Every structure is written in structure tokens, then in C-alpha cells.
Amino acid sequence: MAWDIPRSTSESQVGIRPEYVEVVTEPGPNTFPARLRNVRDHGPQRVLEMEVAGQLIRAKVPRENGIPAVEEFLVHLPRAKALPYADGRLVLHS
Predict the structure, then answer these.
(1) How many Å apart are CA 23 and CA 33, to the nearest integer?
(2) Strand duo 89-90 + 22-24: pairing
(3) How many domains are there within the chain?
(4) Which residue of 23, 54, 67, 85 shows the fewest CB atoms closer than 10 Å?
(5) Could you report the per-residue pLDDT of 19-30, keeping only the tens digit for each?
(6) Quick check: is 38 in a domain?
(7) Is residue 3 domain-resident?
């Protein structure tokens, strides 16, 4: 993902709400390998806790979608739903 992150940034992060993280089967833009760490049952939804690039992220998935059958799979972070942070501050111009 490309944003206008200042060069002086010592730490950058991406923020995304769990309902926008998508489990996918094909690689593509903004798609990353993930490793399943835990599954929490929330009634009609499940919350998948996974590791992506060494960071813990969560995805809310409808129960009918099921849980990935493998420990490693792909997740997609839609560009329009991901927010960039530089040194803990939201980058407003992207």
C-alpha cells in the first residue's frame, strides 16, 4: 500500500476494522499471508485472530463462511478501508 508517509517516520502502521479484513484464496494487491492464532465465537460471527507480518490482527467473518481449513492462508486489506499511521498519528493525505 502506498501513502504519503513522511520520510522522517520511525514507525508506520495500518489500521483497519476487523469487519473489513477479508479471507481470500488468490494473491493480489493488498493481500498478505496470515497465520491463524485463535478463533472466538460471537454468535452469528466468528472473530479470527491471526498474525500478519508479525502483527496480530482480527477479522470478523460470518459463521456460514467457516474457518480456513489450513493454518496459513491469505487476507485482503481493502485500500479504501485501511488507514495509515506514522509514529502513532493518522496520515490525513493519502
Answers:
(1) 10
(2) unpaired
(3) 1
(4) 54
(5) 999 999 999 999
(6) yes
(7) no
d(CA 89, CA 66): 35
- In a domain? residue 31: yes
Length of the chain: 94
Q: What residue numbers bound the domain in which 45 lies?
A: 12-80
pLDDT in tens, 42-76: 889 999 999 998 889 999 999 888 888 888 999 99
Predicted pLDDT of residue 87: 82
Asked if residue 91 lies in contact with residue 4, where contact means CB atoms within 8 angstroms, the answer is yes
Query: Do 87 and 10 contact (CB within 8 A), yes or no?
Result: yes
Q: In whole numbers, what is the pLDDT of the chain averaged over residues?
A: 86
